[in-house]
Amino acid sequence: MKRVSKKAKAMSQPIVIIAIGQLGGVFAREFLRKGHPVYPVTRGMNIVDQAEKLPDPELVLVAVAEKDFQSAMATIPAAWRRRVALRQND
Questions:
Q1: Could you identify which of 24, 67, 74, 76 might form a hypothetical disulfide with 20, taking C-beta atoms 3.0 to 4.6 angstroms apart as the criterion?
Q2: Domain assignment of residue 66, yes or no
Q3: What is the CA radius of gyration of the chain?
């Protein structure tokens, strides 16, 4: 059986980005450059469905405008809450 290093495993872990605007796009490109698969979640998507498809991401980056913060945080599925990081854009 082939052993996978911790670094290689960490680099392949998926990243979810909620809101792919200007800042979300910057983060997405960098995560992709570092070898992480990136899964965007946009306003028109059902976030619960996305969490069922990807239950254990390495990170869930919330990159919404300040005015959308409360509503975005209210929709975060329980399975993702321990992985949330915020990058607020005003």
A1: 24
A2: yes
A3: 13
Residues spanned by the domain of 11: 6-86
pTM (2 d.p.): 0.83
Q: How confident is the model at residue 12 (pLDDT cuts 50, 70, 90)?
A: confident
| Whether residue 39 has pLDDT greater than 70 | yes
Tell me which residue has tokens 């490109």. 29
Q: Is 79 within the bounds of a domain?
A: yes
User: Residue 5's pLDDT is what?
Assistant: 59
DSSP collapsed to 3 states, 11-64:
HCCCEEEECCCHHHHHHHHHHHHCCCCEEEECCCCCHHHHHHHCCCCCEEEECC
In a domain, 59, yes or no: yes
